[in-house]
Amino acid sequence: MKSNNYLELYAVTDRHWLGKQTLFDQVKEALDGGATCIQLREKQLDEENFLKEAIEIQKLCKEYHVPFIVNDNVDIAKTMHADGIHVGQSDMEALDVRKELGNDVILGVSAQTVEQAKKAEAHGADYLGVGAVFPTGSKDDAEDVSYETLKAICEAVSIPVIAIGGITQDNVKELAGSGIVGIAVISAIFAQKDITQATKDLKQATEQMLNDCSL
Questions:
Q1: Cβ neighbours of residue 131 under 8 Å, at least 6 residues apart?
Q2: Where does the chain bind Mg(2+) (predicted)?
């Protein structure tokens, strides 16, 4: 991916809000609303069902020409030829992931400090996910990252940075000027009654924030 446009509105799945819907249905609604990237995040699903679900959702993403990223599970990403993989600081090292999956796979790494960000870039990361930039209930292990740290990370690396954690349509404007190229969200899309409309509204707000960044 030569362009960073796929990182503008990065939707991370969470089956916590499924209700009567399937995850496939929710992802389709997010794609209809303009999500530019989908990350499948499954912490509880067994490997067989994770793989089956991943294959189905990647096929859907291909129809929309949107990259499909697997969270954490390098084996699943390798087996199904996922477009990308995202790993946290407690997961497999970025350098080892790159060796395992090769150079054609998108590699995202979570970072909370400038030191972590520089290391991830040196080890082959294509982008960084930095957060939590606002308080969030979606990830129990999320640590707070200040606006100043977010900006410092953006300035310290040459790879694109996206912000994650507690971002909503109302507060995304507060990230203007930080240097990010996009945002990653969970509940701001998947916890909403009308996922498609919520995605559209959030994308519009994000584009406005990014335009403010470039002024």
A1: 110, 112, 142, 145, 163, 164, 165, 166, 184
A2: 72, 91
Would you call 146 a catalytic residue per the annotation? Answer: no
- Tell me, yes or no, if 110 is annotated catalytic: yes
pLDDT of residue 215: 53
Annotated binding site: 39-43, 71-72, 91, 110, 136-139, 166, 186-187
Selecting among 28, 41, 178, 203, the annotated active-site residue is 41
Binding-site positions for Mg(2+): 72, 91
Q: Can you give the pLDDT at residue 136?
A: 76
The residues with which 86 forms a beta bridge, in sequence order, are: 71, 108
Q: Which one is catalytic: 28, 110, 178, 203?
A: 110
From the candidates 28, 139, 178, 203, give the one annotated as an active-site residue: 139
Active site residue 2: no
Residues (pLDDT < 70) of the chain are 1-2, 137-143, 213-215
| pLDDT at residue 1 in the model | 43
Listed by start position, the domains of the chain span: 5-214
Q: Token match 């819907």: residue?
A: 21
